[in-house]
Design a protein that fits this description.
By secondary structure, this protein is α+β, with helices and mostly antiparallel strands. The chain has a seven-stranded mixed sheet. A three-stranded antiparallel sheet has the order 8-7-9, with no helix packed on it. The longest helix is centred in the N-terminal third of the chain and has 19 residues. It is globular and about 50 Å long.
Length: about 350
């Protein structure tokens, strides 16, 4: 068990060691550890070694010049200069919010970036300004579209954050696949099988092998198969890819470069620049008075929470599990699996950063 502040400090020191400026190292570590706090272990500090491998392979610029390369009053294209997506995406959201503040909404498409952590973090930045936040990103091609044997799409997540008045915000953050690839990495670390419906093997058959993607198989879209609506998950992932990649001038489809943890994949010759994101912010008072809207959001949330549920269950609101986990882990700490701890120890020794290994049961 590790306290969040301890992990955040260690992560920041690692980012500083590869050349990130102090402000960006602090931001990147905050984004990364927020995933662990919210219970999204697949996108937290377990990915730190992967960012260092991106740096080692020359794919990550630790001190990027993030700049707007095209814009209108309500839109922009941002070039991330191969920077950490953990830094590039929040900056892009700041631009989206500045535009929304002036004209009601702001939409920013990003190219030449890298993996940006959990999509929800960036969407939630808009909540502080009574705005609705919207975030997407494309990712390495690990996903076989419906009926395909080829992997053409990433897990391509979407996050939307909506403010309420007295109730906690509505925060939907989900991949367009049955699960994110990080869930397979967790199963691999534990030596466990995957549930049916998560992946297919190289011949397109359903499989429980948690290493299936490494063996030529692919992740399945949300819905898993055609009879259960996989064409809808495929369509959602395609929308994210077009908005994030084709619209910005980033790589898209099978050309999106792999994140380091998916290093078993070799990147195809690119058609654009780096990984792409799409971020948006909408002023609530661009539609109606903000307090009126947030009062109605409270009613909406309470109606769903109060719905009759099957025995032993309760209807929850998107964002509830993550919020509850954050409250718990902020006090009790964050439990890391042994392979993650050992990967952090390797980084600690490489950069001469103190790190306490605690593998006690």
């Amino acid at each position: 068990m590790y306290q969040a502040d301890y992990l955040k400090h260690f992560t920041e020191e690692v980012f500083l060691a590869i050349g990130c400026p102090a402000e960006e190292a602090a931001l990147a570590s905050n984004v990364l550890i927020s995933a662990d706090l919210r219970g999204v272990d697949s996108h937290g500090i377990a990915r730190l070694a992967g960012y260092v491998r991106l740096y080692d392979n020359g794919r990550l610029n630790p001190a990027p010049e993030v700049k707007v390369v095209y814009e209108t009053p309500s839109t922009a294209v941002v070039d991330g200069d191969r920077g950490l997506g953990l830094v590039v995406a929040p900056r892009a959201m700041e631009i989206a919010m500045e535009k929304a503040d002036k004209v009601g909404s702001g939409w920013v498409s990003v190219r030449n970036s890298n993996h940006f952590g959990i999509a929800g973090y960036h969407a939630m930045l808009a909540l502080e300004k009574d705005m609705i936040g919207w975030t997407m990103t494309n990712a390495a091609p690990l996903v076989a579209p419906t009926f395909s044997l080829d992997k053409l799409l990433g897990t391509n997540p979407v996050a939307v954050a909506v403010p309420a008045l007295e109730e906690p915000a509505f925060v939907a953050d989900f991949a367009s696949t049955a699960v994110a690839y990080g869930k397979f990495e967790i199963l691999q670390r534990k030596g466990l099988l995957a549930p049916l419906g998560w992946a297919q093997d190289a011949e397109g058959n359903p499989t429980t092998d948690s290493n299936a993607v490494k063996s030529g198989g692919g992740l399945l879209p949300l819905g898993s198969d055609r009879e259960h609506g996989s064409h809808k998950g495929y369509g959602l992932g395609a929308i994210v890819d077009i908005f994030s990649g084709v619209l910005s001038g980033a790589n898209f489809g099978p050309w999106v470069p792999p994140f380091a943890t998916a290093g078993f994949m070799s990147a195809n010759e690119g058609v654009g620049l780096g990984t792409g994101h799409f971020l948006g912010a909408m002023r609530v008072d661009g539609f109606r008075p903000a307090d009126d809207f947030k009062k109605d959001m409270d009613k909406w949330i309470r109606a769903f929470r109060g719905a009759r549920a099957v025995a032993g269950k309760q209807v929850i609101i998107p964002g509830d599990p993550e919020r509850e986990m954050e409250a718990l882990r902020s006090v009790e700490g964050i439990e890391l699996l042994e392979p993650v701890v050992l990967s952090l120890d390797v980084l600690a020794k490489r950069f001469g950063i103190p790190f306490e290994i605690n593998l006690s049961k």
